[in-house]
Design brief:
Number of helices: 14
Shape: globular
Oligomer: single chain
CATH superfamily of the largest domain: Phosphoenolpyruvate-binding domains
Structural class: alpha/beta
Number of domains: 2
Strand order of the largest sheet: 1-2-3-4-5-6-7-8
Length: about 300
Amino acid sequence: MTTKSHRLRELIAGPRILVMPGVYDGFSARLTERMGFEAAMLSGAGLSESHLGQPDVGIMGLKENVDASHLIASCTELPLLADGDTGYGNAVNVHFTVRAFEDAGVAGVMIEDQVWPKRCGHMAGKEVIDAEEGVQKIRAAVDARRDPDFVIKARTDAAGPLGIEEAIRRANQYAEAGADLIFADALLNVKDMERVVKEVQAPMAVNMGFGIRKRPTTPLLSVRQLEEIGFAAVSVPRMLSAAALRGMLNAVAVFKESLETGEAVDRPDLAVSFDELNEIMGFEFIRDLESRYLTEEQLKVKYG
């Protein structure tokens, strides 16, 4: 039987770039699967913002992250790559972090080299640990996995505070330590993006924004352009969470206006229908289970 980790590893090594939307709850995970994507990235920012109502600045802890990841992994067949932040401590903590995410049912985990408390990669004020400590964290992550297919993604945030040369140096060191996929975050131009793919001896991943370009960030390129550069995978971590928040803002604004006018409001263009919601959530599967396992009397009481 092919495991989710094995499927994710094959997709990363495949001939086409792997596109992974950032998911953060059951809605986004089921929708991503329904739309035909083959894998997804668990957005640490999305989890912190939606589950805790806090920005992505290291407030979410290991247990909160793992518990949320487990629930999301259990509602989808997609292989999920989790965001393990910095591993929540030193290399010893990374060992237990990797074990916890593996037990949660995800297909891999990303470990980064920021100083804890970390922050979103495009926020000002980032700091990174020494490269040697970063290497030891990746070594610990690789050694901790029990399933050899479990994917270890190493992220370096060195490009911002220390420059592209240091980011490339660290990326290669993390690859030598055994990372399966490398991510150099917050590259600010196409030239640097091309350099990391050419000079790092491992499959490279990249993040793309979607409608949130209020400050300088990685250039927005098409998936085809990223594939031509040579990236093995691309994640769009904030697309679904930002779009969901915009949808809620729009709906609440219309509803609030109706409170002032005193008129009932019905805006199907601003919300999915009840039937569509049930379809996305897999209610048909529940009905199938009922038909197979409930007694005739129970079904009669429920549905007549």
